[in-house]
Amino acid sequence: MVPLIIVLVVVVVLVVFLIGIYNGLVTKRNRVDEANSQIQVQLKRRHDLIPNLVNAVKGYMDFEKGVLVQVTQARGNAISAGSQGMAAQAQAENVLTGALKSLFAVVEAYPDLKANQNVMSLQEQLTTTENQISFARQHYNATVLEFNNSLQVFPNVLIAGPMGFTKREFFEAEPEAAEVPVVNLG
């Protein structure tokens, strides 16, 4: 009778231990998903602000239509890349950041445009959004690192694979694309 009780206690402790590992992995996976959602919220805000900025500067930039077309196309590509995975989305967002830098550089050449309150407000909102995207990326990547590490440590590695937990991709920005556009309106 005593050996049976010992075996039952060991089995119960083992089951509780495995449940704890599984629940920890689920919690970390959910944190990664939540962090990704925060990036998506900021990217949507960015995508929503761009048409307003393009419309605000369109009348001033009759011969700079190429820059506006580039920004509009990059925005469309960034929106559609969201369904193609984290790497494709990061690359498309990096192209969009470059297009926005070009637009901001062109805006600098137009004194009337620099003085337009609507354009200044939109640029400030985009700059703030770029900062929020940067922070959301940092949070996401830190969460992914924690999750990926938890998948690879012993004894979690014995449970993670068979239970369907897979490594997540980082949201990587190109070094030059990670810089926030500098807006000099003075």
Note the topology.
Layout lengths: L1 H57 L6 H17 L4 H23 L2 H5 L1 H36 L3 H5 L26
Helix pairs in contact: 1-2, 1-5, 2-3
Please sum up the structure shown.
The chain is mostly helical and about 190 residues long. The protein has helices at about 1-60, 65-80, 85-110, 110-115, 115-150, 155-160.
**Sequence of secondary-structure elements:** HHHHHH
- CATH topology (level 3) name of one domain: de novo design (two linked rop proteins)
Give me the CATH architecture of one domain, please. Answer: Up-down Bundle
- Main beta sheet strand tally, sense and closure: none
Q: What is the strand content?
A: under 5%
Radius of gyration: 24 Å
Instruction: Specify the overall morphology.
Output: rod-shaped
N-end to C-end Cα span: 86 Å
Q: Total number of helical segments?
A: 6
Q: Structural class of the secondary elements?
A: mainly alpha
Overall strand count: 0
CATH superfamily of one domain: LemA-like domain
Estimate percent helicity.
over 70%
Average residue pLDDT: 85
Low-confidence stretches: none
CATH class of one domain: Mainly Alpha
Summary tags:
186 residues; mainly alpha; de novo design (two linked rop proteins); 6 helices
Structural summary, described in words:
With about 190 residues, the protein is mostly helical. Helices cover about 75% and strands about 0% of the residues. It has a domain at about 35-160: Up-down Bundle (de novo design (two linked rop proteins)). Helix 1 (about 1-60) runs antiparallel to helix 5.
